[in-house]
Amino acid sequence: MNAPLYNTQILRLAAEIPFHERLADPAGSVEKRSPVCGSRVTVDVDLDAEGRVGAVGMLVRACALGQASAALMGAHVVGRTPGEIAAARDELAAWLAGERSDPPAWPGLDILAPAIAHRGRHASIRLAFEAAAEAALQAHG
Description:
Sufe protein. Chain: A, 4 helices
């Protein structure tokens, strides 16, 4: 894997985080922090009548990889069930840990492949998915 860790696509994603404002009164809200690098992500979630994410808000204070991961999570989280988000979180963790060769089915995560060799970055990459999965479960009740 000779791809640069921070490429143009990752840097572009890091600057394009959707839902970058917190929700006023979310049904679920979780903050996750990486003790390795200090990255921090807060995800607020409201579910719709079918139990799918209907609204999301985020506060992201992370490295470019954590920001890129948060951007990808945010771009595709609306309409997902808590179970789907938890599955994406688990697939991402397994992929980063080398327990699976294929990237998660979540759109765009393959762009983070250069980070697999950099274990110190994994926690930051996982933060948004971990926070979203817990916030959605919390909102589900």
